[in-house]
């Protein structure tokens, strides 16, 4: 009998949504194979990868004949596989809707605002060799601050995790995004004890998977520190 090819994920661990997928796969012990797509080498622009995802973005998941893009869709697909603990993406309609509520909000709030800080502070200076544009960075930090306020006052108001009493895919998307500015040594949760406690709870819930997924990003931080 022919054996099923393992589920494949195309990832670059310097990418925030890719790390969320990586952590979920590790925590749920889903058998899979990682295909690394190094964005800095332009490996997302090859003909082969473009065939897989014409948008040339990671993450991409291939499960047999089924190819899926968009981290949100991939995380929810993986979380509904048989045997995966329910808390990642609850079945009960209201609880599931709470996760969907956050993930819908995430892509126009936490994601662009944290990513902009990283782009201005790390990516653009690395690409152009220029200085950080302080005025633009201050603007980005102010936008991120407003998003962090909302995370505290809305999503974490009465519960330990963003969408309830247990960790879900929403926490993975959020934390991986908020970690991205750490590449410059910036802790965006500094001075925010409520969010710091949430981060510790998520890290404890996913344990070694967090460190595995973030090792590459934190190595960037260490290399930058060594150059100072
Ligand atoms: N909405 C997509 C965004 C994916 C995305 O923006 N991926 C970035 C890395 S974080 C990428 O592949 N960028 C390559 C490029 O734009 O050339 C998701 O959540 O999966």
From TrEMBL:
It catalyses: RX + glutathione = an S-substituted glutathione + a halide anion + H(+). It is found in: Cytoplasm. Residues 92-228 form the GST C-terminal domain. GO terms for molecular function: glutathione transferase activity. Residues 5-86 form the GST N-terminal domain. InterPro entries: Glutathione-S-Trfase_C-like, Glutathione-S-Trfase_C_sf, Glutathione_S-Trfase, Glutathione_S-Trfase_N, GST_C, GST_C_Theta, GST_N_Theta, GST_Theta. GO terms for cellular component: cytoplasm. Signal peptide: none annotated. Its EC number is 2.5.1.18. PROSITE patterns: GST_CTER, GST_NTER. One of its GO terms (biological process) is glutathione metabolic process. Its main location: cytoplasm. It is an enzyme of class 2 (transferase). It holds the Pfam family GST_N_2. The keyword Signal does not apply. Keywords: Cytoplasm, Transferase. Homodimer. Belongs to the GST superfamily. Theta family. This is glutathione transferase. It comes from Tetraodon nigroviridis. The lineage of its organism: Eukaryota, Metazoa, Chordata, Craniata, Vertebrata.
């Amino acid at each position: 009998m022919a054996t099923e090819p393992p589920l494949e994920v195309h990832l670059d661990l310097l990418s925030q949504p890719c790390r969320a997928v990586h952590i979920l796969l590790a925590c749920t012990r889903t058998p899979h194979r990682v295909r690394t797509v190094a964005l800095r080498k332009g490996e997302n622009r090859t003909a082969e990868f473009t065939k897989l995802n014409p948008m040339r973005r990671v993450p991409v998941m291939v499960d047999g004949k089924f190819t899926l893009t968009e981290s949100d869709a991939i995380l929810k697909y993986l979380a509904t596989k048989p045997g995966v603990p329910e808390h990642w993406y609850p079945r009960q309609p209201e609880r599931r809707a709470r996760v969907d509520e956050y993930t819908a909000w995430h892509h126009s709030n936490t994601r662009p605002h944290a990513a902009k800080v990283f782009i201005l502070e790390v990516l653009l200076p690395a690409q152009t060799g220029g200085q950080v544009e302080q005025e633009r960075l201050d603007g980005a930090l102010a936008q991120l601050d407003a998003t962090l306020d909302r995370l505290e006052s809305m999503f974490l108001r009465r519960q330990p995790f963003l969408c309830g009493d247990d960790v879900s895919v929403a926490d993975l998307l959020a934390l991986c995004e908020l970690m991205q500015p750490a590449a410059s040594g910036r802790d965006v949760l500094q001075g925010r004890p409520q969010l710091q406690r949430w981060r510790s709870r998520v890290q404890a819930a996913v344990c070694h998977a967090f460190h595995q997924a973030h090792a590459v990003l934190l190595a960037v931080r260490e290399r930058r520190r060594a150059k100072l």
